[in-house]
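This protein record is not my work; I was only asked to verify it. Take the sequence as given and treat only the tokens as open to question. I have pasted the whole thing underneath without changing anything:
***
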Amino acid sequence: MAWNDDNKNPWAGGSNQTPPELEEVIKDFKNKFYGFFNNKKSSGTGTSKMPASGGFKYIFILVLLVWLLSGIYIIDPAEKGVVLRFGAFQEETDQGPHWHIPYPIETLNRINVEQIRTAEIGYRNVVNGNRRFGGNVSSESLMLTKDENMIEAKFAVQYKIDDVQAYLFNVANPDTTLRHVSESAIRQIVGQNTMDYILTEGRMNIADDIKEKSKRLLDKYQTGLLITTVNMQDAQPPEQVQSAFSDAVKAREDKQRLINEAQTYANDILPKARGKAARVLEEAKAYKSAVISKSEGEASRFNQILAEYEKAPQVTRKRLYRETIENVLASTSKVVVDSKTNSMMYLPIDKLINARQANTQVITQGSSTQQSNQSGNVRDIFRNRGDR
């Protein structure tokens, strides 16, 4: 049987009625809502009217809906959401939309885990964002070094939140704890090194040691913080000894300058000295080889002459004598004449002298041919005299 047969439908339970329209339901809700407040206002005139029981239902539903919608929240990519139920940890949420039971049952804490925070140690105070250095020195910045000198050091510790649960629940004030831990590590590391090392080449090593020491202490306390960098922003002696320290620094710079100049001079002179020494050694080796070769040649020549002398002593003796006289007279301008001979012989003295000078010039120019010719002329003269 169809719904509209015999004018019946399931909404009316058999009577001739139609289902309520949506507009009528909204209009009825508005009338009851306004009627509730109008009745409340007219209560002052003495004509109080109780709102209809249906009005409380709609108001309760509306309030409940708004309360439930207030539990919707969105977590940014750099944040972590921590939901607490009656103050106790319930869950940790990542980025994106989420919902929790609204207050007062559950509360939400947003923690930025990507934000880099900075703790400055050694500064007296900060006014309008500017650090103040004047006046008395901050007790945080004055530290005792290993060599019993006072130094004023200022550090900047950068950190971020690594564990949100530990950050919220393990320590009452994690940021203050990190500051105290960093100051303790700084004083310990500075006390283990000398002033000169801290002020000169040890700045980077000091910062790294402070970072490692602070990290171990924070992990031990379970603060949930992670130190990213430690920077030594300033390190200098106290103001009272600043002038003396400046003189010491200037003296150290002069010392380093003189060392560099000496090293430069050494780098310039040592290669030359080494080269000269190597050249002298090579010349000595060459002279040694020449002397040895000449000695060996003379010894071999002597052995050969000795063998010839044993065969013909008179001839060999006479030949050696002539060669010796030839070598002696070849380098002198004097002329020896045998006075025992009665024959008069004209000797071309001027030609002999000129021949000797020409021989010397030829030797200087490196011509061995002309030298042999001139020497041959002298030998012929003395040989002819010997034959006569």
